[in-house]
Amino acid sequence: MKRRQFIQTASTASALGALGLTSGCASIGGANGPKVVVVGGGYGGATAAKYVRMWSDYGIQVTLIEPNASFISCPISNLVIGGSKTMADITTSYDNLVKRHGVNLIKDYVTQVDPDKRVVKLASGGEVPYDRLILSPGVDFMMENLPGLQKPGAQDKVLHAWKAGAQTVALRKQLEAMPDGGVYALAIPLAPYRCPPGPYERACQVAEYFSKAKPKSKVLILDANDDVTSKGPLFKKAWAERYKGIVEYRGKHGLSDVDAATNTLKFEFNSDVKANVLNVIPPMRAGDIAVKSGLATANKRWCEVDFLTFESKAAKNVHVLGDSIQIAPAMPKSGHMANQHGKTCAAAVVALLTGKEPNKLPIYNNTCYSFVSSEDVVHVASVHAYDADKKTMLTVPGSGGVSAAANELEGRYAMAWARNIWADTLA
Amino acid sequence: MTKIPFLIAALFCAVSSVNAQTTPDPLQVRSWAASCSNCHGTNGRAESGSESLAGANKDDMIKKMLDFKAGRKPATIMHQLAKGYSDDQIKAIAGYFAAQKK
Questions:
Q1: How far apart are CA A92 and CA A353, in angstroms?
Q2: Pairwise CB contact (< 8 Å): B84 & A362
Q3: Which of A33, A323, A330, A354 has the greatest number of C-beta atoms within 10 Å?
Q4: Closest listed residue to residue B36, CA positions, set A13, B22, B100
Q5: Closest Cα to residue A315, out of A333, A330, A297?
Q6: Which residues of A touch B32 (CB under 8 A)?
Q7: Which domain holds residue B93?
Q8: pTM attached to this predicted model
Q9: Inter-chain residue contact A5 with B30, CB threshold 8 Å
Q10: Is residue B51 part of a domain?
Q11: Which of A147, A116, A155 is nearest to A133 (CA)?
């Protein structure tokens, strides 16, 4: 069935190719077609790689460079920490991008971009040339803001678990090893950060685990923001009703340092907090390769882009998308949004490489589900359209909103969302 | 005297706006439709748990979306998303999915 779907997709793409792709690009897998290099195989980069192939009638060569062996989803990873899902549930192979879509996958790490020569340099040595480069490197952490975390071993003990993978498993193990009656302290950085509701969902997941396995234990949320940054009333209701006596929320707690040896969090204006398990989500910025390449022009943290094409405002023929960008107003840094960036950027890159004008009116939505327990879910949704005067994406007035209340039906929709977006990104 | 060119201009505008509505750029519509595929599958062919839109009846899809938009059809999320698209955009996107193979 999957195979048939692929053939149908390919024939649809052929029909689209007849609409105007140059004949040189139309030969499938042709070695002389334009070359696109994608750096980073997360929601943004993997989607861009697949859609550049599909929408160019498989005429544009795409090389995806990604250091991880497989895709591990950040969305749903809080359920692994809560214990109701496993790592296998959130892991997807890159095989379909290669086998179905002919993406050339290189398991490596890009150390340098040379926009003049139009090549990227690989950690293992060697260069990969491009006509257009798509960078989707996600976020990296501003560890320099937390000196104590730079001491030897500190980051092995005080985890962020904000990139799904080994740290997700390690945080789960710390929670399992914690004695009943212990305290789990979660430090949240000032917005903007990846996945605005993610920390509050995590607090719910840990609280549900404690309520079943360690009922005398506490979840202490220490938020640098004034208040809960996303779905506030819905999360607060869950903490007050479902997890009464377990979750405590404290806003305006800007973290200044961490003492891993004594399990102590230090704050700018508040007294120290000691806890059994520290989970520090550090402030973040665009992925290292984007910063190093001089693309992070907004406060040296985020990459400014043209929202019609996702081309960097700092480098020609280099596109940046996903969590690395300086977001438009009310645009969250989310996996769903990165997937939308990937498709918008892919369409623009195909248009630019085939002498056409990119779409002048991108419209896309964000849908974000948060699990307040292992089954009940709340969502936030928004629709964003390009504003030609302001040259940015704005939310469409009257659109979007949140769930009326946490419910089990949306728990099922959330898993359907996950299956569909994983397939849209990777299959 | 001056009314006639005005009328012609008005008529011309009306005709071109009708044209703009009936013949949207297919690549633009493809991109709009792709923003639905996160939940409804690439080209509208959904994984389990979500409604497939590929090859569905165009008029049914338009009616559903307009009902979501107007609040006539209860939903968890689609009433909020439908309000982000104009009626013409909804019609164009429905046309795209109706033309996809199931």
A1: 30
A2: no
A3: A323
A4: B100
A5: A297
A6: 363
A7: 25-98
A8: 0.91
A9: no
A10: yes
A11: A116
The total number of structural domains that make up chain B: 1
- Per DSSP, which regions of A210-267 are E strands? 218-223, 247-250, 255-259, 264-267
DSSP code of A373?
A: S
| Residue A119 CB partners (closer than 8 Å, separation 6+) | A127, A128, A129, A130
Mean pLDDT in residue range A191-217: 98
Interface check for B52 against chain A (CB to CB < 8 A): the answer is no
Domains delineated in chain A:
2-140+285-358 (3.50.50.60), 145-282 (3.50.50.60)
Half-sphere exposure of A199 (CA within 13 A, CB side): 32
**Residue in A closest to B82 by C-alpha:** A399
CA distance B53 to B36: 9
Please state, in angstroms and rounded to a whole number, the distance separating the CA atoms of residues A270 and A257: 12
Between chains, do B50 and A410 touch, taking CB under 8 Å as contact? no
User: Is B19 a domain residue?
Assistant: no
Here the tokens at position A356 are 């056409």
Find chain A residues with C-beta within 8 A of B70's C-beta.
none
CB-based contact A413 B27, cutoff 8 Å? no
The closest of A354, A362, A385 to A309, measured between CA atoms, is: A362
Task: For residue B42, tell me if it sits in a domain.
Answer: yes
Note whether B86 contacts A: Cβ–Cβ < 8 A: no
* Chain B residues closer than 8 Å to A358 by CB: none
> What mean pLDDT is predicted for residues A329-333?
97
Buried b / exposed e over B45-76, threshold 16 CB at 10 Å, is bbbeebebbbebeeeebbebbbbbbeeeeeee
A52's CB contacts (< 8 A; 6+ apart) are A36, A38, A60, A62, A134, A346, A349, A350
CATH number of the domain encompassing residue B84: 1.10.760.10
ipTM of the complex: 0.90
pLDDT of res. B54: 98
| pLDDT of amino acid A32 | 77
Do the Cβ atoms of A267 and A177 come closer than 8 Å?
Answer: no
What percent of chain B has a predicted confidence (pLDDT) above 70? 77
Q: Is residue B13 part of a domain?
A: no
Q: How far from the centroid of its chain's Cα atoms is residue A421's Cα?
A: 12
Q: What is the pLDDT of residue A306?
A: 98
Written as six digits, the tokens of A412 are: 């099922």
Do the beta carbons of residue A125 and residue A71 sit within 8 Å? Answer: no
Q: Let me know: does A139 contact A150? Beta carbons within 8 Å.
A: no
Q: A291, A282 in Cβ contact below 8 A?
A: no
Lowest mean pLDDT among A28-37, A132-141, A333-342: A28-37
- Pair of tokens at residue A229: 């940054």
